[in-house]
Design brief:
Bound molecules: benzoyl-formic acid
Mean pLDDT: 95
Structural class: alpha/beta
Radius of gyration: 21 Å
Shape: globular
Strand order of the largest sheet: 7-6-8-5-9-11
Helix content: 40-55%
Number of helices: 12
CATH architecture of the largest domain: 3-Layer(aba) Sandwich
CATH superfamily of the largest domain: Bacterial extracellular solute-binding protein, family 7
Low-confidence stretches: 1-18
Number of domains: 2
CATH class of the largest domain: Alpha Beta
Number of strands: 11
Length: about 325
């Protein structure tokens, strides 16, 4: 009898939550609104707002003008924003081992299949107080862009704008580093305060940096991770139906990561049209460029958390 009452109560409770009112999440992005690395998130917001009517909606409050990029991790962790579009490089204060994510050579679809997604989600839940909902940016490499030419991997004597993505590699190659948010790059170039900067293959023209950029070093290295994070307390308070909308939308957007392969090509063509020349090295120097990227990147993660580095490498690199 007691058992029946308890199950009825559980059922009743289930019904109440299932028919809960529509919830609106506050969303923010670390990148300027309408630019390359905000676009997948904006497509996600549109998808949720179209498919989640009566269930879950997102109020997109904005980009760096609303929350500074390096503060957005704290904002989603504390619940100041409910859902954030952010890259691990901007929240290393909370998850230093997150630097491993851009060292991935496989895709988020592979990571969902091989268990890496759960591991990454768990790390985010424990250290960022956030649900790791989605990863965008697969297939997009990072590059070094310069205002003056170089003829080999040495960056000695150059001052380069960095984020944690490029720090270990560029430091190993001898550069002087200045860490800035993307919003400060244009002015730093204009003033001659930097000789170059790290940035992905996409987005340079979007930000108008082509006006101040003369060279791009090929090949690119690493792989962009721009992630959707949901405050964990908020996530835990959602109904199954609300979560299902967000998870379905996340996977729809992740499927479109494949489009990046074509977009990369058209971005490279646009850079060439804008007068950005490509610098390539000898075969041996190219190999050392790429090896330094990988080795310095993983060594930096291992220094922070050797166990995490080992576990992540096993499922991010194949
Ligand atoms: O260079 C950066 O600001 C950076 O780290 C980054 C990460 C992901 C996408 C674009 C830029």
């Amino acid at each position: 009898m007691k058992k029946t009452i308890v199950s009825l109560a559980v059922l009743a409770l289930g019904c109440t939550t299932a028919s809960a009112e529509e919830i609106t999440l506050r969303g923010a992005t670390a990148f300027a609104k309408g630019t390359t690395f905000s676009r997948p998130f904006e497509a996600f917001v549109d998808w949720v707002n179209a498919n989640g009517k009566g269930v879950v909606q997102i109020n997109y409050i904005g980009g760096p003008e609303a929350v500074p990029p390096f503060e957005l991790g704290n904002a989603v962790s504390s619940g100041v924003v409910d859902i954030a579009n952010n890259t691990t490089a901007f929240y290393t204060n909370l998850l230093p081992e997150g630097d491993a994510l851009h060292l991935a050579t496989n895709t988020i679809q592979d990571q969902r299949e091989n268990g890496c997604y759960e591991l990454i989600d768990q790390m985010h839940q424990e250290k960022v107080n956030a649900k790791f909902l989605a990863r965008t940016g697969d297939h997009i490499n990072f590059h070094l862009y310069l205002t003056k030419p170089i003829d080999g991997p040495s960056l000695s004597g150059l001052t380069i704008r960095t984020t944690p993505v490029y720090r270990a590699m560029f430091e190993t190659l001898g550069a002087n580093l200045v860490r800035t948010a993307p919003g400060e790059v244009y002015t730093a170039l204009e003033r001659g305060a930097i000789d170059g900067y790290g940035w992905p293959i996409q987005g340079v023209l979007d930000l108008g940096w082509d006006e101040q950029t003369k060279f791009r070093v090929d090949p690119g290295f690493y792989q962009v991770d721009v992630n959707f994070l949901v405050n964990l307390d908020k996530w835990n308070s959602l109904t199954d139906e609300q979560r299902a909308v967000l998870e379905e939308g996340a996977q729809v957007i992740e499927a479109s990561n494949a489009d990046n392969i074509g977009i990369n090509e058209s971005e490279a063509a646009k850079q060439a049209e804008a007068g950005i020349e490509v610098i390539t090295f000898s075969e041996a120097d190219t190999e050392s460029w790429l090896n330094t990227a990988q080795d310095a990147g993983w060594a930096a993660v291992a220094e922070v958390n050797a166990d995490a580095a080992e576990q992540l490498k096993a499922c991010l690199v194949n």
